[in-house]
Amino acid sequence: xxxxxxxxxxxxxxxxxxxxxxxxxxxxxxxxxxxxxxxxxxxxxxxxxxxxxxxxxxxxxxxxxxxxxxxxxxxxxxxxxxxxxxxxxxxxxxxxxxxxxxxxxxxxxxxxxxxxxxxxxxxxxxxxxxxxxxxxxxxxxxxxxxxxxxxxxxxxxxxxxxxxxxxxxxxxxxxxxxxxxxxxxxxxxxxxxxxxxxxxxxxxxxxxxxxxxxxxxxxxxxxxxxxxxxxxxxxxxxxxxxxxxxxxxxxxxxxxxxxxxxxxxxxxxxxxxxxxxxxxxxxxxxxxxxxxxxxxxxxxxxxxxxxxxxxxxxxxxxxxxxxxxxxxxxxxxxxxxxx
Length: 339
Known about the structure:
Keywords: Membrane, Transmembrane, Transmembrane helix. The protein is mainly α. The protein contains 17 helices and no strands.
């Protein structure tokens, strides 16, 4: 149970910790000052949502997200949200490709080298079907999480920061709703594609609680660190590099590699959601669908990483609030509809 639970926990975390999150850009967009309570609420909402999505997916034994979506938002709205999920996965995968280009630029490499490299690795990954993604998540994510936590804790100690000094200032608590909502749609897409591989409800609870607690703790420490350097964040495309600026160059290289892995796992999760959705229409090998999908995305990566996040993420966060409400109230609404 624990081994399987860890597999799904890392899939959830890998779907959530992408370029926007790991770089700090997404956290700063929604949280910032007076957001401690917002992050605690996000953790509770996230755990609840993951457990509901995985339970529905498990009960439906789904291999793509539409059956799960119909249960969560109802038949009438499922068509609208089907389109939204597809657009969300598509545009956020474009953001990840762009993020790979931005990470390459930090090492004075051409932008297109970073974009081409991640595209090539994604094609190789999906040549081994979905099992390749699950296997690589279990290797990459523990290293990423430990590395990110290490940097944030070292920064907190070096700067002599208190984690709870502003706990009485909580005016931004409502940010928990759009931030959680932003991360819900990709989870429906990805967890909806693996329902037929989940074996027990214990796995679901382990994965839901584990992923929520880990993301909640990292989000809190990360946000606390960003508050200390808020004046400098306008100068950085990737806020994480503002935290790292006084550290040895080797640490910058290590975290840039880990940041790229975070980008890669989310891009892989997005591609998984897209290709499992269109496989029903186009009876082609998974790797070929990945190649075609990535080729259509390349022209859009020219818009730039922080610009894409600044425009798209707040919009998606607001549009997804209805889905979040359905998930949080799912046990009540589900019983009413059955009655």
